[in-house]
Amino acid sequence: MEKGSKSSENDNFMGASTKQGYDIALKSRKIVKSLIGNKISHLSPYERSIVERIVHSTADVEYADITKISSDFLKKSLESVKNNKYILTDINMVKTGINKYSGEIKCYITHEKTIDIARTEGITRAAAAMRLAASKGFEGIVVIGNSPTALFEVINLVKNDEMEVKSIVGVPVGFVGAAESKKKLQETDIPYLITEGPKGGTPVAVAVTNSIIRLSKESL
Fold first, then answer.
1. What value does the mean pLDDT take over residues 80-92?
2. Which of 35, 98, 113, 155 is the most buried (most CB within 10 A)?
3. Is residue 8 part of a domain?
């Protein structure tokens, strides 16, 4: 068991909120550790816990190989969460999955101004939503679980000093642009967690973000 009492872990670990849920999560965790323990032994304990939660959430052990975390990602992400900075998501499904956060979670994908920007500029709504967030003075963690164009847009906004981003969970999914957008993120100075290639999606984005929130409540 990691730091903290069993009752606190029961409240937070892998979404468990009852004894039965905790027992299932604990058993799953043991299975995950047996399957990927040797693959993630080089990571810090907190980094390992994030990857374990991704594998638990997806039942896909390949994530132990393709999840890449910059050296400053955890530090910057934990600082942001502890200071209740915003979390910005690309789609509402990701926003809905994030829980137990004291700060605000933003998603502008359906905002009327997002739709106007997308039509005027000829870009995707996901990219337009990032522009709108930047115009509103966003500062915090960006969580991309679906749209490569949103990730490309955030990278450009940061590059042009138009957006204050503490870290990015960059796990868009798909065969068009996803791998390329994540590779582009790795080439920047932005603290990141990515999943190489086309894999990713909402479950991964949510698993990572909820892990960060849980870890922020533990003493470093």
1. 97
2. 155
3. no
Using alpha carbons only, how large is the chain's radius of gyration in Å? 17
**How many domains is the chain partitioned into structurally?**
1
- What is the CA 112 to chain-centroid distance, rounded? 25
Q: Please indicate whether residue 42 is annotated as part of the active site.
A: no
pTM for this one? 0.89
pLDDT, averaged across the chain: 91
Structure token digits, residue 185: 């993120």
DSSP 48: H
Q: Using alpha carbons, list the distances in angstroms from residue 212 to 77, 93, 128, 131.
A: 7, 18, 26, 25
Cβ atoms of 78 and 72 closer than 8 Å: no
Return the higher-pLDDT residue of 198 and 15.
198
Pairwise CA distance, residues 205 & 54, whole Å: 9
Q: Is the pLDDT of residue 196 over 60?
A: yes
| Residue 141 in domain | yes
Q: How far apart are CA 192 and CA 167, in angstroms?
A: 6
The Cα–Cα gap between 166 and 151 comes to 14
**Rounded distance between C-alpha atoms, residue 131 and residue 188, angstroms:** 19
Residue 27 lies in a domain: no
CATH of the domain at 98: 3.40.50.10230
- For residue 140, give its domain range: 62-216
| pLDDT tens-digit series, residues 144-159 | 999 999 999 999 999 9
Provide the pLDDT for residue 24: 79
